Amino acid sequence: MNAFLRQQFTLLVATAILLAIFGTFVPNFTSTSNLLDLAQQIGVNSILAFGMTLVILIGGIDLSVGALVALVGTVTTYCMVNTTAPDGSAIGLGWNVFPAMLAGLAVASLFGLFHGVAVSRTQMPAFIVTLGTMLVARGLALRFNEGRPLSLPGSQETFLFIGNGRLFDTIPMPVLILLSVYLLTAAMLHFTVFGRHLYAIGDNRLAALYSGIPVSRCEITVYILAALLTATAGMIHASQLYGAEPASGQGFELNAIAAAVVGGASLKGGRGTMTGTLLGAIIIGILDKGLNQAGVHFSLQYMIKGGVILAAVWWDARRRR
Description:
The protein is mainly alpha-helical. It has one domain: ABC transporter involved in vitamin B12 uptake, BtuC, CATH 1.10.3470. The chain is 73% helix and 4% strand. The strands form three sheets. A two-stranded antiparallel ribbon has the order 1-2. A two-stranded antiparallel ribbon has the order 3-6. Strand 1 and strand 2 form a beta hairpin. Helix 1 runs parallel beside helix 12 and helix 3 crosses helix 10. It is globular. This is Ribose transport system permease protein.
């Protein structure tokens, strides 16, 4: 069995063990309705984790995704809402759903472009660049409506269907979007020249540069793609909240990093798969939902998740040695 299959098999076994444990001690945890709810909940984190995996593959990191989720959700909602404040001033632009979604994607693309240019052209550390833009994005989100939530009107059925609808009254829409994004990103990563370039850059950036790979262009593209995936997750999240919460998304970047790392992505770059990341997101989702339904105190939940991440990083370091 090669390394890839062995890794995926290990993740599948871990997923099965967690389901067995929570299925034994948490009533109705493995029921169809509960598992569908679980699948719907992991949609946002999985899509964020796919973008994070692309960034981690080239040896980077993106700490701004949680704040960008809030900003994209707020911008998109603000464009669709059309209400009047108590002082008579207008709140929102009252746009149709598709122009509003394009506005959210455009905002995310600008952040992704800045990340890519700053990291690739100026050699600034990705950690510092995205830490700064995390604060900028959070501040911009809080500027809308003075930091107060924005509620979507019921007439925005198309947008609300993205996060809450179910195909044939069974399959949650976030799951369908998640699967589509997984197939597209996995195909791009594993069956295109661009994907091979990302592995080469993460493995040895200087060697990739000397071999003729357009390193800067690839890095900029990766950060833009990651931002667009973040925007997609932000719209799903806003739809699930029936509006925008400027303070939402806190800690989302940590869950995305955790899913990628648990799924086998190396923080040193050059190693990771979308299948592993998806399984990692499922494992994190099972832990979150299972511990919540089991009534475990939130402080202990943090400790358990931290232990899982440390174990994954230790295993990656051991495998590299």
